[in-house]
Specification:
Length: 501
């Protein structure tokens, strides 16, 4: 049974390595003091951690970025801090789990306060040795590490017993460090019961009795746990006192959550749909989460929070495979989107991508399809491109060039690439008619003045047929061209406006 626990713990730790997790970019909110809003650039991050006033991020290549407050060197990442698979941040120190060179279990790396001052409780200097660690966590002034035998090791400040693991110290699969307390999940399989040690103030020892928990997180005066049914449990301060910011009472009661993070006096949760929720203290807008549904990981600190966001991307599903299109026809462009894509920009090229032009009319929103009026062009090097933003990051285009052609039949007046009676009808209506941009409107052949050109007007014209004494304005205007008699030339004018009203 213990072997199953060890395997579960190892997988938990390795899920943060660049070999397993997808690489994303960093977003943050809340306090911006000490440069907390100066996020490192890139979209290759696999994990984030938040301390009281500093932050850490793990890249897919196993290196660590740090920013924010650096009073005690907590953002001075050691030069040999590589091959990292997990990170954690306390108030004045940082912690990392390093994979061994042979790819086996890991050792610990720590940096930050070690000057012997009041906040220094050995968080760095008393770092446990060994290379059999599989997971880590950082409390405010103490550190925790899970070993491959299912036991937890603690070090640092011990004022409330927060580094003395609950007995029996075995079968642990998850761990978390808070202000002056610690948490662990002790399990026989994938789910388990919660154990806590350290301060019991604020009711932090009132842990749920269930045995179906899969994750834990600890703040300063509250704790959280995620159940197997994706619901959140919270306990701790709820007495309306100075430390109560409803971080417990405002905990969401619905399901659908896949990750939790407790800040000092607030909480953040990640939903299965990729969106975020937050509640509790909001002094620095730390509970005002960014919109979108592309988030993959979260962390909460003193008054700031972090999330990893998957880059939005699109996949063109048609027109995508060397289709042949005819000018003037309607073709459906379809696509699939990943991440948060509010609007899709659509363009086409007739020179194999050298130049691009937007479709007309422009696409609005992200419906997954667009009805495109194929433009006038003749080319075998046409492409369609879709973009999730004004940049081309996450864009996609046709896998193979399309062909657009114009109908070669000069007699195809209607543009359907078929010469038929429809074309003859158009020609007949304009028989012997020359376009005059200064010609009078259709009212000149509305002989009875009823507002339309119809059979009544044709009967009037018939009554004057072949009359040659009408002049330019006689015979009720039926001698439309004013030349000779009422004849076929005048009838052609009626045909031009037939049915007009």
């Amino acid at each position: 049974m213990k072997r199953q626990v060890v395997i579960a713990a190892i997988l938990c730790a390795l899920c943060f390595s660049g070999h397993v997790a997808m690489a994303d970019s960093i977003e943050g909110w809340g306090s911006s003091s000490n440069g907390l809003d100066q996020f490192p650039a890139g979209a290759d991050f696999v994990a984030v951690a938040a301390g009281y006033a500093h932050s850490l991020a793990l890249r897919s290549d196993g290196t660590v970025e740090a920013w924010g407050a650096n009073t005690f060197g907590q953002t001075d990442v050691p030069a040999d801090c590589n091959n990292i698979v997990a990170i954690a941040a306390g108030e004045h120190f940082s912690l990392a789990l390093k994979k061994n060179e042979d790819g086996s279990l890991g050792s610990l790396v720590a940096w930050g306060i070690e000057d012997g001052s009041t906040p220094d409780d050995g968080q760095v200097s008393d770092l446990p040795e060994g290379n059999d660690f599989v997971a880590i966590a950082a409390g405010r002034y103490h550190g925790l590490a899970l070993k491959n035998d299912g036991s937890i090791v603690g070090w640092g400040r011990q004022t409330e017993g927060q580094t003395t693991t609950a007995i029996p110290n075995d079968f642990f699969v998850k761990l978390a460090g808070g202000g002056f307390h610690s948490l662990g999940i002790r399990a026989d399989g994938l789910t388990g019961t919660i154990r806590t040690w350290g301060t019991s103030f604020w009711g932090l020892d009132q842990i749920p009795a269930d045995a179906n928990f899969i994750a834990v997180s600890a703040g300063q005066a509250h704790s959280m746990a995620l159940r197997e049914d994706n619901k959140i449990a919270a306990w701790g301060v709820d007495n309306g006192g100075a430390d109560d910011f409803k971080q417990v009472t405002d905990t969401p009661q619905d399901s659908g959550y896949v990750a939790i993070a407790a800040g000092y006096y607030f909480s953040v949760a990640l939903k299965a749909d990729g969106s975020l929720a937050a509640w509790g203290k909001n002094s620095d807008n730390q509970t005002v989460v960014p919109e979108g549904s592309s988030f993959t990981a979260i962390a909460a600190g003193g008054a700031h929070a972090l999330a990893l966001s998957a880059p939005a991307s699109l996949t063109l599903t048609s027109l995508n495979n060397a289709e042949t299109l005819r000018t003037g026809t309607m073709e459906t462009i379809t696509w699939e989107s990943e991440g948060s894509v509010a609007k899709v920009w659509i363009e086409y090229s007739t020179d194999n991508g050298v130049d691009w032009s937007p479709v007309a009319p422009s696409n609005e929103g992200n419906t997954g399809s667009y009805e495109w009026l194929v433009p006038v062009a003749t080319s075998q090097e046409c492409l369609v491109r879709i973009r999730p933003s004004l940049t081309i990051q996450g864009a996609d285009q046709s896998d193979a060039p399309l062909t657009i052609y114009r109908c070669p039949l000069s007699g195809d007046v209607t543009g359907d690439c078929v010469v038929d009676l429809a074309d003859i009808a158009v020609i007949e209506s304009q028989w012997l008619y020359s376009y005059d941009p200064f010609a009078e409107p259709f009212s000149k052949v509305d002989f009875d003045g009823d507002g339309s050109v119809n059979a009544a007007d044709l009967m009037i014209m018939g009554s004057y047929w072949l009359r040659s004494d009408c002049g330019a304005f006689g015979c009720q205007g039926t001698n439309v061209d004013g030349i000779g008699s009422v004849d076929m030339y005048d009838l052609a004018e009626v045909g031009e406006y037939w049915g007009t009203n």
